[in-house]
Amino acid sequence: MTSAGTNPAGDADLEQAPARRSDATRAAILDAARRRFAEDGFRKATIRAIAADAGIDPSMVMRYYGSKDGLFAAAVDVQLGLADIVAGEPDSLGERMVHRFVQLWEEPPSSEILLILLRSSVTDDAVTDRVREIFAHQVMPAVLSVGDPADAPRRAGLIVTQMLGIALCRYVLRIPPVVALTLDQLVAEVGPTVQRYLSSSPAR
Q1: Alpha-carbon torsion (50, 56, 58, 61), positive or negative
Q2: Which phi and psi (to 5°) does residue 122 adopt?
């Protein structure tokens, strides 16, 4: 039994309201940061410009993310989800990897994040390190699931060249024949190549 004048449900709503505002502010900052990083690159983008885009004070950006480096890391945090596709026939893992990777490039917010990383990594060492980290931590486990573990770095590197080559030609350079391919066509064309890398041995 509650005392007169109290409203437990209302109190709970009041407690949750700041958390909801905090989540909304974080989301607005990340959305603004992704747009600004995509347009200006990591070096030229400023906390002040990002805050203005989000309609908040720059101190709020620093409060939530600490620095531009911290904000960038949060804005480009992407999960490739390759661990989810390892289960299944090893002989079709290459096709599943291509399917998953292209899907990420076609669906927001991962499409925006990957585009920022690809464009910025060409000119910014800090972004290059971030790309290396993502692929080292997320592609390598999938490659380790097949073949010789000692040879996994070579095979993973070759797979990354294929994946990033598709991304560059389809989403940055927008080469018409590559853009015109459907997801199923890309999987059919590129999947066997990735599968060959997965099962290959070092050249002698």
Answers
A1: negative
A2: -70, -30
Token pair in block for residue 77: 């945090």
Higher pLDDT pick, 10 / 199: 199
CA separation, residue 34 to residues 75, 129, 187 (Å): 6, 18, 29
Task: Count CB neighbours of 91 within 10 A.
Answer: 11
Question: Counting Cβ atoms within 10 Å, is residue 13 exposed (0-12), middle (13-18) or buried (19+)?
Answer: exposed
Q: Per residue in 20-56, pLDDT tens?
A: 778 899 999 999 999 998 888 888 899 999 999 999 9
Return all residues near 179 (Cβ < 8 A) that are at least 6 apart.
Answer: 170
Domains, in order of start, for the chain: 14-75 (1.10.10.60), 82-199 (1.10.357)
